[in-house]
Specification:
single chain, alpha+beta, Structural Genomics Hypothetical 15.5 Kd Protein In mrcA-pckA Intergenic Region, Chain A, 5-stranded antiparallel sheet, 5 helices, 39% helix, 17% strand
């Protein structure tokens, strides 16, 4: 499983793919998958990584990592999965962006605002 996930470019290294399997972020046909499990053509996988949650069908098996075009030929993402991921991306874009906290100690103005929020005079 970890070799296939690495070859299909879902994870950058095999160790990251194995760690994701240990944490239960990879399911094969509805069951959590161990990293040593064999992947077969026709398996339905659910993979959770930084890019989102992918529901895919295995179309090919490979144990070597090749070009991205070859990796994309190893699987097909379901339409429901693709639609859900695109919807989540759009929701993240519309969320307000918060200003990062300032480095260092607060200024006199910041301290006064903090005291006002805490109910001090």
């Amino acid at each position: 499983m970890d070799k296939w996930l690495w070859a299909a470019r879902f994870f950058k290294t095999r160790s990251l793919a194995g760690h994701a399997c240990e944490l239960g972020r990879v399911e094969c046909n509805g069951q959590t998958a161990k990293s040593a499990r064999e992947v077969r053509v026709g398996d339905l996988l659910q993979v959770k990584n930084d890019g989102g949650t992918f529901q895919i069908e295995v179309l090919g098996v490979s144990e070597t990592r090749g070009p991205a075009i070859v990796a994309q030929a190893l699987y097909r993402e379901t339409e429901a999965s693709r639609a859900a991921r695109l919807k989540l991306i759009e929701e993240r874009k519309t969320m307000p962006h918060f200003e990062a906290l300032r480095e260092g100690k607060p200024s006199k103005r910041d301290r006064r605002e903090i005291d006002r929020l805490r109910g001090r005079s």
